[in-house]
Each structure stands twice: as structure tokens, then as C-alpha cells.
Specification:
By secondary structure, the protein is of the alpha/beta class. The chain is built from eight helices and 15 strands. The structure holds zinc ion.
Length: about 300
């Protein structure tokens, strides 16, 4: 057998951005520390990306998540700092020569609005939102789906009830209950964590021999500042569990010479991980948004 060259083109797809409270994003890290990492605005909010990952081969266009989108009404847009009124994700896809019709599969790590809101059409005063991507299957983990249908009071505001109805009515919702999905080739598998939200589904793509895997970190590690083990978010359901799961993911990345994909990092889309002699994990080989990376 010859050496495998590359199998996929990977492109980071920037969606609408958001601004969230810096204290909530950095949990128990004091402001004197986190404000040096990301500078807050006058309302104490920090700018965060909502970055999706497009994976293409000759047969399929797979999109990992859709970001926050533009479905919020004007007052919620203001609250969450969604400054662009257009659906930025769709524009970014257009830049890659793709329309919403071209996406075959959308994999959703969970259904919090800043990961799944981009499934909906942009806000309009006169019309209720519609579900985009008319040819796509929407892959959602079983536990994450149940959570979205029956949220806890603490994270209820993070879901979009109307979205659940639309997904179900589409006939294209696929519930994932194992580490694989028959719609995807064998290089895809899923791992699940529970510290951020129950059943958070991470896609792991086995890449060419020299490349290692690509791991979709989602809200387990939203950006490079959260690679450091003790850093977690105030939004996390179970911070200690999250930190244990994060350690496992970082060790997996090192073992597989893998790269983590960050959805919320304002600058960095992809990095490898190393563990320093004192045990601290750090992001290395950091890469900004990228186009048609061959893996
Ligand atoms: Zn989340």
C-alpha cells in the first residue's frame, strides 16, 4: 500500500461573532488575569468568534456547526453583541463557492444557540425563522438532543425551542447514539463529554498519515486560553468533570499528533498541543483561519 496522501480539504468558516461576559467565559479566573488575555469592552464583554469547520472530499460537503447565526431579534442581538445583521456563515460559504443547498451533512456538537442558531434564517420583522440547508442531514447526539428538548432551568435560555420543532419536522434529523454514523466514512468518529453540557459530541477526523487527527473541541475547549487545565467557563454544568475530560482530550491530541479546532477563539482556529515539563498544557503551531487545508 502506498502512503496515504490527503483525503479532505478543511476550511474554517467564520460565522456571526458574539460578545459574552468575560467573567462568565472565564469562570473562576480573576479579571486581572483574563483581561490580559482578551480585552473586555465597556460592558465587560469579550469578542468571540463562532467558527464552523467545512470538510470536503469529492463526494460530500460536511459542515461542523453553524455558529450563532443572525436569527436573534434586535434586542437579543444587542445583548449578545451580534453586530452583523447579515448571516455571515452563509456569506463565508459563498466565498468558498458554496450555497446552503450544497451542504450534505451538518454535525452539531450540541444545540446551544451560539452553535446551532446559524441553522435558522436571519431575523426578519415580518416572517418567522425558517430552517436553512434544505439538503442537509442534521446530526445531533442523542443525549444532547434530549437536553435541548428538556433543558435544566440553568441552561434553558441557551436553547432555541423553535429550532427543535423545525429540525424534527424536516425529516432530516439524525440522532447519533454511538461513536460512528453510517452517513460518514470510517475516518470520522465521535467522542462525548458531559462537563459543559450533557452529551457534547466532538467529531474526530482521522487525517493522512503525517497529519494526525483533527478534533472538534467545541465548548470543552472554546479557544486557546481555555487549554490551560484549571480554566473553565461559568456556563459549564460541571467544571471539575469538564477539567478531567479536557485533560483526556489534550492527552488524546498529543498521542495522535492531533490538532484541536477552536470555535470561539477570536484569532486561532487550529493548534497542536504540547505538555511542558511542569505538566502545563499549551497550544503550539497555532493557525489562524484557513482555506482548503489538505489533511
Ligand atoms: Zn455550549
Amino acid at each position: 500500500m502506498g502512503k496515504r496522501i490527503f483525503m479532505y480539504y478543511l476550511t474554517s468558516i467564520v460565522g456571526n461573532s458574539q460578545k459574552l461576559d468575560g467573567g462568565a467565559m472565564f469562570g473562576n479566573v480573576p479579571k486581572v488575569v483574563w483581561s490580559k488575555w482578551i480585552k473586555p469592552d465597556e460592558s465587560n464583554r469579550i469578542l468571540l468568534s463562532c467558527r464552523a469547520l467545512l470538510i470536503q472530499n469529492s463526494t460530500k460537503n460536511v459542515l461542523l456547526e453553524t455558529g450563532i447565526g443572525a436569527f436573534f431579534n434586535p434586542s437579543l442581538k444587542e445583548r449578545y453583541g451580534v453586530d452583523e445583521s447579515k448571516h455571515v456563515l452563509l456569506e463565508s460559504l459563498h466565498h468558498q463557492g458554496l450555497s446552503e443547498e450544497d451542504i450534505d451533512i451538518i454535525i452539531l456538537s450540541h444545540l446551544h444557540f451560539d452553535h446551532a442558531g446559524g441553522l435558522l434564517s436571519a431575523w426578519s420583522d415580518n416572517e418567522s425563522p425558517t430552517l436553512l440547508f434544505p439538503n442537509a442531514k442534521y446530526l445531533v447526539g442523542k443525549v444532547a438532543w434530549e437536553r435541548a428538548c428538556y433543558p435544566h432551568p440553568r441552561d434553558k435560555a441557551s436553547f432555541i425551542p423553535k429550532l427543535n420543532e423545525l429540525l424534527e419536522a424536516s425529516g432530516r434529523l439524525v440522532i447519533i447514539d454511538s461513536d460512528r454514523c453510517g452517513l460518514l466514512d470510517d475516518n470520522y468518529r465521535f467522542i462525548f463529554t458531559n462537563g459543559h453540557t450533557p452529551g457534547l459530541m466532538h467529531t474526530v477526523i482521522r487525517a493522512g498519515d503525517d497529519e494526525g487527527s483533527i478534533i472538534f473541541a467545541s465548548d470543552l475547549i472554546p479557544g486557546t486560553n481555555w487549554v490551560h487545565l484549571p480554566v473553565s467557563m461559568g456556563y459549564d454544568r460541571s467544571p471539575e468533570l469538564l477539567i478531567d475530560e479536557k485533560k483526556e482530550m489534550l492527552e488524546l491530541a498529543i498521542k495522535q499528533n492531533g490538532r484541536l479546532f477552536y470555535t470561539h477563539d477570536p484569532h486561532i482556529a487550529l493548534s497542536r498541543i504540547v505538555q511542558e515539563e511542569n505538566g502545563k498544557f499549551i497550544a503550539v503551531d497555532e493557525m489562524r483561519d484557513f482555506k482548503r487545508l489538505e489533511v
